[in-house]
Amino acid sequence: MSRFLKPTLTRRGFLASAAAGAAGVMLPLYQQSPANAAAMREVRLRAAPGRVRLVPEPFGETAIWGYNGAVPGPEIRIRQGERLRVVVENGLAEETTVHWHGVRVPNAMDGVPHLTQPPIGAGERFVYEFDAVDAGTFWYHPHQRGFEQVGRGLYGPLIVEEPEPIRVDRDVTWVLGDWRLKKSGEVSEDFGNRHDIHHNGRVGNTVTINGRVPDSFAVKKGERIRLRLINAANARIFSLDFAGHEPVVIALDGQPVTPHAPDGGRVVLGPAMRADLVIDMTGEPGSRSSIMDRFYEGLEFPFVDFVYADASLRERAPDWPMALPANPLPEPDLENASRNEVLFNGGMMGEMIAAEMGAKMGPGAAGGRMGGMHSMMEMMNSSSAWFINGVAADETSHVMKPMLTLARVRSHVIAMTNATAWHHPMHLHGHSFRVISRNGQPTRHREWQDTVLISPREKVEIAFVADNPGNWMFHCHVLEHQAGGMMGVIRVA
Amino acid sequence: MSNILKALVLASLLSSAGLALAGEKDVTLYKNPQCGCCEGYADYLRDNGFAVTVKPTHDLSGMSREAGIPEEAEGCHLSFIDGYVVSGHVPVGTVNKLLTERPDIKGVTLPGMPMGSPGMSGTKEAPFEILEIPKSGGVGGIYAKE
Questions:
Q1: Which of B39, B58, B63, B72 is the best residue to mutate to test the A interface, defined by the most A CB atoms within 10 Å of its own CB?
Q2: Which of A200, A296, A349 sits opposite B113 (nearest CB)?
Q3: What part of B 22-61 touches A (C-beta under 8 Å)?
Q4: How many Å lie between the alpha carbon of A201 and the closest alpha carbon of chain B?
Q5: Contact A199 B121 (CB under 8 A)
Q6: Which of A297, A476, B31, B72 is buried most, with the most CB atoms less than 10 Å from its CB?
Q7: Three-state SS across chain A?
Q8: Which positions in chain A touch B74 (Cβ < 8 Å)?
C-alpha cells in the first residue's frame, strides 16, 4: 500500500484510551493528518469481554463485551472525504463482524456475516477500509448475533465532520445505551428469550449515556450545543422532552435535514437511529432542569438533568446559521421509480392485526397478500416470530435469497406496511433513502434516513437511487425481531 | 359486548363465584407498556368484580421466571391475586376456582395469547388448557379446561 499509514496505537495507548473511555471521555485514536497527505486514518478495535462501571456505587462494576475495553467503544472521528482503515481483532469466544451503520460503504466492507464476508473467528482479525463519503453521525456495531453482542455493549460512535462544520460552542456525542441489569448490577443473561422476541424486544431497566447512568450535564446560559444522539439500544425507543428547551433537528441518521422543531417538541429515536440537535441553553444561571423520556406510557422517567453554571456564557442565544451542507446523495426520480410492496407480519397479537388490516385493505390492495391462506397458515405454524412478505429469515442457516432485486442506478420506491402490533425501526444497508410518505400523507421534510421507525398499522414509503451494487441487508433494528426472522436481502444489480 | 349481555355474563359468573370474599379480589397486573390486550384482560377482570391495578413494566420475562413460570409456558402478562400468580389471559372461572379451592401451588398460566381468550379478539378454536405452576416452579398438570 502506497498510502501513508498512521502508526497503530501502542499497548499503553490502548489502555489509556480504554480507561478514558470508561470514564466517559472520548478521545480520538489518531492525530490530525497533515492537510497535504493522502488522508487515511487507521484505528484498531478489539472486541473482548471486560468490566466497566455502568452504575454508580454501591453497585460494583459490570461484566460487558466492549471495544478496547470500554462501552461505548472509542469515538472514531474523521473528516468527510477521508479514508478510514479499521483493524478489528476478535477477542471474544465467538464469531463477530463490524457493521458501519449508515455509512455508504462498498458491499464487501459492510460487515454482514456470510453475506458480505466470512465471520471473524475467535482470535482472528479483519481489516475494514472505506471512504467517508457523507458527513454525519454514524455508529458501528457487530452484525453477528447482534441481540447479544450489541446488548452486552459492543457499539461505538463514528463521527464524520463536515469540511466546514456549523458554528457551535460545543459538539457533544451521546451514545444512548439500555441494559437489563439484575439486582447485583450484572447483566441479565436472558438474551433472545421468547417474550422479548415476540413483543417489543429486550427493553432494559437501566439507561446509560456514553456508558454511565447519567445524573447531570453541566451547561451555561447562552451556550449553543450540537448534540449528536445515537440510540445504540437493542430495542428501547426514546422520546426525549427537553424541559422547556427548544431543540432544533438539523440531521437525522447522519443526513442533513431542513432545521426544524421536532413534532410536539419531542425527539423520538428508535433503535439505531440518530439525530443531530442544536440546543440553545436558555435556562437561568444556577438552575436545573430534568430532560424526560416519555416514550412508554406509565414508565416516563427523568433521563438527565441540565445543570446550569452560576455564570452565563452570553445573555441571548446566538443567531448563527444551523443548516448543514448537503451530502452527495443522488435524488430519486419518482416518476420513473419502480414500486415494491413490502409487508410485515407476526409478533404478539399479529394474527389479530393482520386480520383487521386484511379486511380493511382487501385483496389486490397494498399488502393483499396477507389474505393468502397458504402463507398465513405457514406463518402461524412456523416457530419464527416475524415475517417480511411471508418469509422469516433463519439467521443460522445463512441462506439469504434476495427478497427484491433492484436495477442499479435506477430509482425505487419501497412501500412498507406494518401489519403488526409493534414498532419496527427498519434499516436498509448501503444506502440512505428519503422517507416520502406516512399513511399516504407526504412527509414535510422528505428526510433522508437509513433507519425508519414504523408505528403499528402504519404505512411508510421510502425512495432512493440504488447506486451501491451488492447484496444488502434490510431488517428490523429491534435486534430480537431481527433474530426472530425480521430480515431480508435486497440485491442491487 | 352489549350492556345486557355483559350484565348476564357478569351475573352468571358472580353466582358461580359466590364464595370469593372482599379482599381476595385485589389484583395487581404487570404488563408490557405497549400491549393493548392486557388492558382488555384487566377490564375483563374488573367487569367480574375484581379491583385491578395495572402496572406497566419492561421486566415481564424476568418477573415470570422469578414467579417460576418457564419461558415456553409464559402468558403475556402477570397478575398477582391473593397469594397466587395468574399468568396470561386466564378465564375468570379458573381464577375463581383457584381462589375457592386454594390448592398448594404457586399459580396458573395460560401460555401465549390464544385467540378468543378474555381480552383477546378472534374466535376460540379449542378449549383453553390452563396449566399449574407448582411451588417448585416449572409446569405441573392441567389445572382447568375452559
A1: B58
A2: A349
A3: 32-37, 54-61
A4: 10
A5: no
A6: A476
A7: CCCCCCCCCCHHHHHHHHHHHHCCCCCCCCCCCCCCCCCEEEEEEEEEEEEECCCCCCCCCEEEEEECCECCCCCEEEECCCEEEEEEEECCCCCECCEEECCCCCHHHCCCECCCECCECCCCEEEEEEECCCCEEEEEECCCCHHHHCCCCCCEEEEEECCCCCCCCEEEEEEEEEECECCCCCECCCCCCHHHHHCCCCCCCEEEECCECCCEEEECCCCEEEEEEEECCCCCCEEEECCCCCCEEEEECCEEEEEECCHHHEEEECCCCEEEEEEECCCCCCCEEEEEECCCCCCCEEEEEEEECCCCCCCCCCCCCCCCCCCCCCCCCHHHCEEEEEEEEECCCHHHHHHHHHHHHCCCCCCHHHHCHHHHHHHHHCCCCEEECCECCCCCCCCCCEEEEECCCCEEEEEEEECCCCCEEEEECCCCEEEEEECCEECCCCCEECEEEECCCCEEEEEEECCCCEEEEEEECCHHHHHCCCEEEEEEC
A8: 194-195
A278-319 pLDDT tens trace: 999 999 999 999 999 999 999 999 999 999 999 999 999 999
The complex's ipTM?
Answer: 0.80
What digits encode the pLDDT tens for the residues A229-254? Answer: 999 999 999 999 999 999 999 999 99
CB contact B116 to A (< 8 Å):
no
